[in-house]
Design brief:
The protein has 95 residues and is an alpha+beta fold. Helices cover 22% and strands 35% of the residues. The protein has three helices and four strands; from the N terminus they run E-H-H-E-E-E-H. The protein has a four-stranded antiparallel β-sheet. A hairpin with a 6-residue loop joins strand 3 and strand 4. The radius of gyration is 13 Å and the shape is globular. The mean pLDDT is 91.
Amino acid sequence: MQLHFEPITSQNRAAALALQIRKEQTGYIESVEQCLKEADRLRLWHPVGIYDADMLVGFAMYGLFPAIPRGRLWLDRLLIDARFQAMGYGKAALA
């Protein structure tokens, strides 16, 4: 596993939007589309793709809140595409 994170840009946005969760997970996390709209409105959010080598396997979004003394980093969203779930990507991404 060669896990790394890449910012969501115009070059990988469509691929990120194609990520899907399992149907039974609907309602537990916002869609990538909702996350990206929120990040477009509020610059404190930073959406990233989770990659294994050059393969996009998931999505995360974090925020940095500088108004709080010494700042606060917040992991707000994490999802692994349904095709790659139960393969250890979620645990590896959080590590």
